[in-house]
Specification:
mainly alpha, 5 helices
Length: about 130
């Protein structure tokens, strides 16, 4: 069931990326297209990292380092998208996702092997929304 949900999420994100590329290409200049595609590509990378994080939580007993690696990956992608945009909505979504990652990281450091990831998945979904026109 979780694999099916991950496939739907990936498919939805891929469709959004294609729609953004087409829409932006038809309506804006090259610089705006580049920035928007950077946002979408980074949001897509974050979605992949969130999927990896979900799998890491499921497999935490086998390899607890996967959790930290997934959280670090999300942080890295957030830094990239935050550096490339001056859009207030995108920056707010980046901040919200960063806060959610910090909260999960804190829970893991306190010994929670299966932290609640819903704030991260919700914030990642919001980021995907604000990156698409």
């Amino acid at each position: 069931m979780a694999a099916s949900r991950r496939r739907r999420t990936t498919t939805t994100i891929a469709a959004a990326v294609a729609a953004v590329a087409l829409t932006i290409g038809l309506t804006t200049g090259c610089d705006a297209v580049s920035k928007a595609l950077d946002c979408v590509q980074t949001a897509d990378a974050i979605a992949d990292s969130v999927t990896d994080l979900q799998q890491a939580v499921e497999n935490a007993s086998n390899d607890p380092t996967q959790l930290e690696e997934s959280l670090n990956s999300i942080d890295k992608n957030l830094d990239q998208i935050g550096d490339k945009t001056d859009n207030a909505d995108v920056n707010k979504a980046v901040d919200n996702l960063g806060d959610a990652v910090t909260n999960v990281r804190s829970a893991v450091e306190k010994g929670d092997a299966t932290p609640d990831l819903s704030p991260i998945t919700d914030a990642a979904g919001e980021l995907t929304k604000v990156c698409t026109p």
